[in-house]
Design goal:
globular; alpha/beta; eight-stranded parallel barrel; 32 strands; about 675 residues
Length: about 675
């Protein structure tokens, strides 16, 4: 069972429980967070007690909590992972996000399983398979177009499987789960939560003849994802869960970006009221904010909507993987320990502690933190700033240079405080009973909290004034998570009720309503797999299948896969292989694609998709181009030092027995 198809889920990240609580407070319908282990962000773990605390808060609003259990696992880790799954279930968690199919062979609790981005879901066949083996929610590859998403929705069942899609945050340049550069170069596996982010490094790009194509460019570094303009189209394509990237991000980021998408999704829901296909939030209540959400205020590498609307030229953050901020003005003078600026927006103010930056002559980003800011002529937008670092040390700083701001202290301070209010609507009703008074609250989900008192009713001297006072008193819900949509006192019209009595009734009824909501909460059921087991879309799996334990091997064998190679992390791929597969194409982004130049003949002859080489210090990688599916492969091999260390670790392990997989098709009794 998945979310009802008319509900939209805003899925926010949380580095810790406190950030998760604020994500809920800022409108998240669901939050994903790392548990005590086995999550694909190795330094974002959380205790079971903290997760249980987050669960309790989220469930008050019918928001759900998902925990990442999405690394590939060694054999000796399967049993601890199984025990952790049960502990998370007992803590009230609503779903586990997984990559390793070996978990499906274990005795897991009756908890929903969701497919991690690491499962690399790009095709209708893969999506349908994951649905049929019991995964209730699947996050699609970020590289998909609207048409490809719709094709996946066409072969999956909305009643059984929810489609999830990343709408904001950092972009991994590789197909998720298909990047092995980190393990090959450092022994730290991205599939085990320890990515070294080689994609953010600067590279020399050299062609087949040794000529430089690009110098010190971050050609594997993508801009940040932002699907703000595509939400309606994604809904129409079949997406129902809208995921924000960022389990490493800080509180301010989660507050702001969650509020931004909460606002946009609420507008979309409101716009479709009364239509043939109305939409609704996947959790309870409405959220208001003390600030206007603005994605530009958080760290970003500028924005792209990636491939959703088709291949775009400008998706890379090639000049810098840092946050360039927003342009604010120009340098007018450079003094011995100060810099004068003229701001484009004269209503803008600079503050002590703001962060400024600019591009030097090599197009590298240079930071300039403000120690003190003084208005020279605020009416004309002229400011003098005193940087924390010496002015002489600020490379290529000069008159006429454009300056950006990438940290606004005033904005940070707003988000450091309470910045949202989430309330569940209730209808209050006060009435006289045969032996006293009763007060009830009925919330927007149909839950009811009611209490009574045996205080005999007393006629009021001024009926209208008494009714107004009673109505105001039962509508005072400021210290709770509720707000009164209506307060009905018709059943007690003309009766005087002391404020102390109404206060006690209100507290008791709200407490009863909270209890009623807690009792009404139900986790969505675990999906059952189709029987007999459906076949996997292919009958062979290379190292790209990420099979790292015998349970995963058994899973794929049970689903018809006959040749199963070990995961790259098993250190069996000793020669050159694809260490990264990506939809991003360096040739295309540098205007060297043969399809771009089709029919164009220049002085160098016909443009061909010949390999390129990436060089960073002593590290060298080869770029090969598969033009039919329009993909790029980053090719290299495992370092000898990584392999030697892995062998030492294996020999030192008490149960260090390497897995054995079929390298060729096994023959049956008939020799086939």
């Amino acid at each position: 069972m998945s979310l009802p198809d008319y509900q939209l889920e805003l899925l926010a990240p949380a580095r810790d429980a406190d950030i998760g609580i604020e994500a809920v407070n800022h409108g998240a319908d669901a939050v994903y967070i790392g548990g005590p282990g086995f999550g694909a962000r190795s330094s974002a773990d959380n205790s079971l007690s903290d997760i249980a605390r987050l669960v309790r808060h989220a469930h008050r609003f019918n928001s759900r909590i998902f925990v990442t259990l999405n690394t590939i696992l060694r054999d000796e880790e399967l049993e601890p992972a199984r025990k952790l799954a049960w502990q998370l279930h007992d803590a009230g968690v609503d779903a586990l996000i997984i990559q390793d199919m070996g978990l499906l062979e274990l005795d897991l609790p009756p908890i929903q399983l969701h497919a991690s981005t690491q499962t690399d879901i790009r095709t209708p066949e893969k999506a349908r398979f994951l649905q049929d083996v019991g995964l209730s929610q699947i996050v699609l590859a970020r590289e998909l177009t609207l048409e490809q998403i719709a094709a996946i929705r066409a072969v999956t069942d909305p009643a059984r499987c929810t489609l999830e899609f990343f709408v904001h945050g950092a972009l991994c340049v590789a197909y998720s789960g298909q990047c092995y550069i980190s393990h090959a170069h450092t022994g730290r596996s991205a599939n085990r939560g320890e990515c070294s982010q080689a994609c953010r490094l600067p590279y020399q790009v050299v062609d087949a003849k040794g000529r430089f194509v690009a110098h010190d460019k971050h050609v594997l570094s993508m801009k940040d994802n932002n699907q703000s303009a595509n939400l309606a189209a994604l809904v129409d394509a079949g997406v129902r869960s809208f995921k924000i990237e960022g389990r490493y991000k800080d509180m301010g980021y989660v507050k702001n970006i969650t509020a931004h998408y909460r606002t946009l999704l609420d507008e979309l829901i409101e716009a479709r009221e009364g239509s043939d296909a109305p939409l609704a939030r996947a959790s309870s209540g409405r959220t208001t904010f003390t600030f206007t959400p603005d994605p530009d205020q958080n760290f970003n590498r500028e924005f792209t909507d990636y491939f959703v609307q088709g291949r775009q030229m400008d998706i890379g953050a090639f000049d810098s993987p840092k946050n360039p901020g927003q342009p604010i003005g120009y340098v007018t003078q450079v003094g011995p320990n100060w810099v004068e600026l003229e701001l484009t927006d004269r209503s803008m103010a600079l503050h002590n502690g703001d962060g400024l930056c600019y591009y030097d002559l090599q197009k590298e980003l240079v930071g300039m933190a403000i120690n003190r800011a003084e208005a020279v002529n605020a009416a004309k937008g002229r400011w003098r700033v005193f940087p924390k670092d010496t002015v002489a040390g600020l490379k290529d700083l000069r008159k006429g240079l454009e300056v950006n701001r990438n940290r606004d202290v005033d904005w940070v301070r707003v988000l450091d405080k309470k910045s949202s209010d989430r309330r569940i609507g209730v209808w209050a009703a006060l009435s006289a009973t045969s032996d006293g008074m009763a007060l009830s609250y009925t919330d927007e989900d149909g839950c009811v909290g009611e209490v009574q008192t045996d205080l005999p009713p007393e006629p009021a001297k001024d009926s209208a004034a008494a009714d107004a006072s009673n109505r105001a008193q039962i509508g005072k819900l400021g210290a709770t998570i509720f707000e009164a949509i209506d307060a009905d006192v018709a059943g007690a019209s003309g009766l005087f009720v002391p404020a102390s009595v109404l206060n006690a009734l209100r507290r008791g009824a709200i407490e009863a309503l909270e209890t009623s909501r807690a009792q009404a909460w139900q986790r969505l059921e675990r999906a059952t797999s189709v029987q007999p087991p459906v076949p996997y879309p292919e009958d062979t799996l290379s190292y790209l299948g990420n099979v790292y334990n015998t349970s995963a091997h058994n899973f794929y064998a049970r689903h018809g896969v006959r040749v199963i190679d070990a995961a790259f992390e098993a250190n069996e791929e000793l020669g050159e292989v694809s260490l990264m597969i990506t939809k991003h194409c360096v040739r295309f982004s540098l205007s060297l694609c043969p399809k771009q130049a089709k029919g164009v003949v220049g002085v160098q002859g016909q443009v061909r998709a010949e390999p390129l080489q990436l060089i960073n210090g002593k590290e060298k990688l080869t770029l090969r181009f598969d033009c039919k599916p329009c993909e790029m492969h980053v090719v290299g091999k495992m370092k000898t030092s990584v392999l030697n260390q892995a062998r030492k670790d294996l020999a030192a392990a008490a149960d260090g027995v390497p897995l054995t997989f079929h390298r060729t098709r096994p023959t049956d009794a008939f020799g086939h």
